[in-house]
Amino acid sequence: MRSTLVSLAFAAFAAASPRPQSLDIKAVQAAPDPTILGPPVGAVQQTIVYNAEAAAASATEVAALPTRVARRWVTVVQKRDVNDACAPQPSGYGPKANPDTAEAFLSDPVLQASDAAEPQGYTVSFRSKKGSVSGNTYMGYKTLESYNTVECAQFCDATYGCAGFNIYYERDPSFNPAQACPNPASTTNIKCSLWGSPVTPESATNEGQWRGPMDQNGEAFHVVIAGSAGFNRNAPPPSCTDFTGPVRLGGAINAPLDNGVDTYIGMKYTNAPYDPNVCAEACKAQTDYNRLTANNGVYKPCNFFTAYVISKSNIPEGMYCAMYTRAWGPEYATNQGQWRGADYYSVSNAYSFTLNVQDSGTVHV
C-alpha cells in the first residue's frame, strides 16, 4: 500500500497558488490510488501498520520540491493460508445459509445484522449493506469468532490512526477452488476491517467476486457480503506537539484578507490515514523553508493550520492540510465543499491547530 503526499506549497507556491477560498481538487485528483484498498478474500492473515513517524517525517522532506512525493508509510505483513489446489481453508465462525448458495446467503435474515449494536464512543454510519468498505485509508483487518461490534471497536481503539471500522459476514470457499474441486461448500467468515478515515455507506462498494473454475452445472464459487455495518469514532484527533488544539470546525477556513494581506500560504494532501501530526510537521517545514528563502529578512511563517478529510461523492479520499500565517476562528470555517464537474468534494472531520509560540516572520540577525 503506497500513500502519496502532494504539496502545492514551498518553492513553487508563489507561481501557482490556488485561491484561498477554494479547495485544490487537482491536488486530490493527482494522488494515485494505494495498491491495497481493502481486506483480501478469505481468511488471509494480514496486518497493516501505519508508521506515524515516517508519515510526519515525509512532510518535511519535500520542503524544496513542489511535486508529488510517494512514500511507503505503511508496512503490510501478510501470511497466506495454503493456496494449493483444493487446499482446505480456515473455517469461519459465522452462520451458513441453507441452501448453501450465494442467493440464500444474501437473503438470510440472520446474516443481515440489522440490529448491530452501536459501541460506546462510536456512531453508526450504516447497517445491513451487501458490500464491504473499499478505499484509500485501509488499515488492516482480523476475523472474529462472533459478530461483535464492541470487539471490533476495541481493535480500532488500539490502532493508531483508526477513525472507523467495518464489520461484516463474508461467504468464502471451504477449499481453494480448482479443477478437482470447483464451487466447493462455503464457510462464513466474520471480518472486522479498520479505516483511517470515516466509513460511509457510499464506500461499501466491494460486493464480492467469483473464484475458481465452474462446476458441472456451470457455477463457480461466488464470494458475497452480507450484514455489513460501519461505525465511526466520536473522539477528536490527538494534540500536536507545539500546537494548541484540536479545535473542531464546521468546514474548511474561508479566510478574508487581513488588512489587505493574504494569510493563506499553501496546502498539502495525502491519501494516508487521517493524522494531523503530518500537517503539523508540514507547517513547521513550510516556515523553515520560507525563513531560509526570506526576501529582505521577511518571510511568511506557518502559525496555524487546519486538517480535514476530503471526500468525493461521500467516499473519503484522504487528508487535506491548509496553512496560514495567523489563526482564524471557527466562525470562518464556512467552506463545506465544492463541485468539480458532476462530483461533489466535501469537507469533514475538520480541526484547527495554532502554533503555541507565534513566529513573527522576521529573520533575526
Task: Write the SSE topology.
Layout lengths: L2 E5 L17 H6 L14 E6 L1 H10 L7 E3 L2 E6 L22 H6 L14 E8 L8 E7 L4 H9 L6 E10 L12 E10 L13 E3 L9 E13 L9 E6 L15 E7 L5 H17 L11 E9 L2 E10 L12 E4 L2 E13 L10
Antiparallel strand pairs: 1-3, 1-12, 2-4, 5-10, 6-8, 7-8, 7-10, 9-10, 11-16, 12-14, 13-14, 13-16, 15-16
Helix pairs in contact: 2-5
What characteristics describe this protein?
365 residues; alpha+beta; 8-stranded antiparallel beta sheet; 33% strand
Rounded radius of gyration (Å): 23 Å
Overall pLDDT level: 87
**What structural class should be given to the helix and strand makeup?**
alpha+beta
Oligomer: single chain
**Topology, number of strands:** 16
| Number of helices, counting only DSSP H or I runs of 4 residues or more | 5
**Overall 3D form:** elongated
In whole angstroms, how far apart are the ends? 46 Å
Give the low-confidence spans. 7-20, 63-72
Largest sheet: 8 strands, antiparallel
Strand content: 25-35%
In helices, the fraction of residues equals 10-25%
Helix and strand pattern: EHEHEEHEEHEEEEEEHEEEE
Question: Summary?
Answer:
The chain is α+β, with helices and mostly antiparallel strands.
Account of the protein in words:
By secondary structure, the chain is of the alpha+beta class. Helices cover 13% and strands 33% of the residues. It has helices at 25-30, 52-61, 102-107, 149-157, 276-292; strands spanning 3-7, 45-50, 69-71, 74-79, 122-129, 138-144, 164-173, 186-195, 209-211, 221-233, 243-248, 264-270, 304-312, 315-324, 337-340, 343-355. It is elongated, with a radius of gyration of 23 Å. It starts with a strand and ends in a 10-residue tail after the last strand. 47% of the residues are buried.
